Amino acid sequence: MATTGILKNTIREENVPIQKRHSIISGKSDFWSSSDEEEGVQPHEKAIAAGQPNPPYCVRNVEQHAFGRREIEIAEQEMPGIMALRARAKDDKPLKDAKIVGCTHINAQTAVLIETLTALGATVRWAACNIYSTQNEVAAALAHADFAIFAWRGQSEEAFWWCIDQCCTPTSTWQPNMILDDGGDATHLMLKKHAPAFKQIKGIVEESVTGVHRLYQLSKAGKLCVPAMNVNDSVTKTKFDNLYSCRESIIDALKRSTDLMFGGKQSVVCGYGEVGKGCCQALKALGCVVYVTEIDPICALQAAMDGFRVVKLTEVIRQVDIVITATGNKGVVTRDHMERMKNGCVVCNMGHSNTEVDVHALRTPDLLWERVRSQVDHIIWPNGKRIVLLAEGRLANLCCSSLPSFVVSVTAATQALALIELYNAPQHRYKADVYLLPKKMDEYVASLHLPTFDAHLTELTDEQAKYLGLNKVGPFKPNYYRY
Fold first, then answer.
1. Fewest CB within 10 angstroms: 163, 350, 366, 452, which?
2. Are 302 and 384 part of one and the same domain?
3. Is pLDDT at 420 greater than 90 in this prediction?
4. Distance of CA 268 to the CA centre of its chain
5. Which residues sit in the known binding site for NAD(+)?
6. In 3D, which of 325, 290, 333, 323 has the Cα closest to residue 395?
7. How many structural domains are present in the chain?
8. Positive or negative torsion for Cα 450, 278, 212, 148
């Protein structure tokens, strides 16, 4: 969101600390938020030291709340679907008495989802699924509005798990019965550390490739004792969040963090799923020469038919200027690959997991790490060669930029409907397994967003519906249909 950058630059140019700008309108005096980011102080350490091991929230600086509230209000204007769902369902309270553990990226768009879930009757406790993607001012706004938020940008690994545990741990006043996950970390921690409470969960909603993969592994091993909804493979999530969102946000992330000129640059995108397709389309549109690596012959054929040369990474690694991973796998870009990269090569990850680029292999005494700006590191070899690593191999478009709010509205509406479906389903409708979102709900999410474009759907006549064997109001495609 460009407005965010303008506001931040304005504050910086005036040389006025954010906390001072908002202190006069913050009525909260708290010791579980911290403004000591520069000193490397983790807010939860401050809370624990103050005798509050289980604070009501834990954020970087709650006095940023007014700025964060403006961010949320901007996002609401560009999220018509989730706002329409809130308006339609708030009186019915379909999530009444739902207690939801949330573990996702915490930004302005997520805040709109959180406030929608509570408007529909739920109580939530929320942590971040990524140590770098939290918008501190948004977390502050949610905390100031009395939401149990445990997140800040730049968490340590220990703080990351502490925050998730604050949401998952059952207490006399908090017995979670739903999980909304992005990556499977909340599910993993609760299953491992709070097994009896995990059995009381009515349903899990998971939105990432990595998290869905972990759910299927649990199901195969017989360890998944509650039903789960795979929204990552719903049409609305796959097409709109993965394809259209990444098509716009990859360029934004690279531009903001590196000031690159794309015309004429050579780039390689590892993986030609929906995320990879979006990245390739964006790079090609700006004049990049784009190579693709793939393990799947079907995706490889798609890439070739779309005009991209399909190669092995080793064939082009010495010549490319940009390397982007989008596979959801591990060890895609290794130390050996990075040894052979040209000086100034930019390396970033667009997959959920931070295992695609072997960052750990770069933390050796012979290499110098130089932080040049937020989320941008130069890795310098003894001979002076350097590569540019974004977000330490974590999700680049959320760590270095932000997502288009409209696309997140599609995903958020999908998540909300999946939670409503699992929470209100009759006892034996869903077994302890992983399910796809019903097609009718996918179509409903799409319909919520059509008025924004003044789009008018054609209606089937009775004769046409009979000829196709369809209900006039849908669903219009079988589950196996590939959009």
1. 366
2. yes
3. yes
4. 23
5. 273-278, 294, 397
6. 325
7. 2
8. negative
Q: Which residues contact 122 (CB under 8 A, 6 or more apart)?
A: 95, 96, 98, 99, 100, 178, 419
Distance CA 115, CA 102 (A): 12
> In this structure, are residues 213 and 188 in contact, taking their beta carbons and an 8 Å threshold?
no
Q: What is the CATH classification number for the domain harbouring 408?
A: 3.40.50.1480
How far, CA to CA in Å, does 361 sit from each of 136, 155, 336, 368, 394? Answer: 30, 21, 9, 13, 15
Tokens of 155: 């968490």
Quick one: what percent of the chain has pLDDT higher than 90? 76
What digits encode the pLDDT tens for the residues 227-241?
A: 999 998 888 888 887
Of the candidate ranges 31-35, 153-157, 373-377, 439-443, the one whose mean pLDDT is the lowest: 31-35
Q: Which residues are annotated as a binding site?
A: 273-278, 294, 397
Same domain, 250 and 368: yes
Is the Cβ–Cβ distance between 428 and 463 less than 8 Å?
no
By DSSP bridging, strand 309-310 and strand 346-349 are unpaired
The amino acid that residue 250 corresponds to is I
* pLDDT tens-digit map of 65-120: 999 999 999 999 999 999 999 999 999 999 999 999 999 999 999 999 999 999 99
| Residue 476 domain-assigned (yes or no) | no
232 and 262 share one domain: no
Q: Residue 98: which domain range?
A: 54-237+404-442
Q: Considering the domain boundaries, does residue 187 fall inside one?
A: yes
Q: CA dihedral in degrees (98, 99, 104, 109; nearest 10)?
A: 60
Instruction: Give residue for tokens 């909304």.
Output: 180
Give how far the C-alpha of residue 441 lies from the chain's centroid of Cα atoms, to the nearest Å.
21
**Measuring CA to CA, which residue among 381, 357, 354, 361 is closest to residue 370?**
381
Compute φ and ψ for 347, nearest 5 degrees.
-120, 125
Identify whether 25 is part of a domain: no
pTM: 0.79
Q: Give domain status of residue 416, yes or no.
A: yes
The end-to-end CA distance of the chain, in Å, is: 29
Same domain, 132 and 248: no
Instruction: Give the total residue count for the chain.
Output: 483
Residue the block writes with tokens 């995320």: 275
Cβ neighbors of 321 (< 8 A, separation 6 or more) are 265, 266, 267, 342, 344, 345, 346
